[in-house]
Amino acid sequence: MASWGIGTQFLRLVEPDTWEAIGQITSITPPESTMDTQDATTLDSPDGREEIVPTILRNGEATVNFNFDPEDTDQQSFHDDMESRVKRSYRILFPDEENYYQFDAYVIGFNIGEITPDGLLSASATLRATGKPGFGKLVP
User: Fold this and answer.
1) Residue 44: inside a domain
2) What b/e sequence results for 99-112 when a residue is b if at least 16 CB atoms lie within 10 Å of its CB, and e otherwise?
3) Would residue 1 count as lying in a domain?
């Protein structure tokens, strides 16, 4: 069944078993997972077809966009974590508030958006996932 994105939360682990929601998120693009392959084609491959062998699993980048509040220390934590080169655990908690997608990442980019007379302040953070991401379910 399809789900609506409203109610999705972006959280960061601040202490063991303590997740903190980052406020005013406008969109989240989770990190992509891909698998490299190595060509294993030989001169006697069946029907002259390419053959491959799976190799390394790679993590991509996540992007989090938000309405920027210069006084919001949770939003500022993206910049602070990047400057400190801190690896954190992040969680995308889906609207059912039970299912989530979790990954470890380094913040590799922080950008305050264009400031205009008729627009909202905005910002984005880019995170590079490291290690194995995964789905989970909160246990009541």
Assistant:
1) yes
2) ebbbbbbebeebee
3) no
pLDDT score of 139 more than 90: no
Q: What is the mean pLDDT of residues 108-137?
A: 96
CB 65 within 8 A of CB 47: no
CATH number at residue 47: 4.10.410
For the chain, give the mean pLDDT. 96
Work out the pLDDT band at 3, boundaries 50, 70, 90: confident
In a domain, 98, yes or no: yes
The parent domain of residue 132 ranges over: 9-137
Q: Considering the domain boundaries, does residue 2 fall inside one? A: no
What would the 3-class secondary structure string for the chain be? CCCCCCCCEEEEEEECCEEEEECCEEEEECCCEEEEEEECCCCCCHHHCCCEEEEEEEECEEEEEEECCCCCHHHHHHHHHHHHCCEEEEEEECCCCCEEEEEEEEEEEEEECCCCCCCCCEEEEEEEEEEEEEEEECCC
In the chain, the number of structural domains is: 1
Predicted TM-score (pTM) of this structure: 0.91
